[in-house]
Amino acid sequence: MSKSPATRTARRERPLSPHLTIYRPPITMTMSIVHRITGGALYFGTLLVAAWLMAAAGSQATFDWVNWAFGTWLGRLILFGYTWALMHHMLGGVRHLVWDTGAGLEKHTASKIAWATLAGSVALTLLIWVAGYMARGSL
Amino acid sequence: MSGSNNDMRTPLAKVRGLGSSHEGTQHFWRQRLTALANIPLTLFFVGFLIALNGAGYTEVRAALANPFVALVMILFLISGLYHMRLGMQVIIEDYVISEGLKLLTIALSTFFTIAVGVASIFALLKLAFGG
Question: Which residues of B touch A137 (CB under 8 A)?
Answer without folding.
Answer: 54
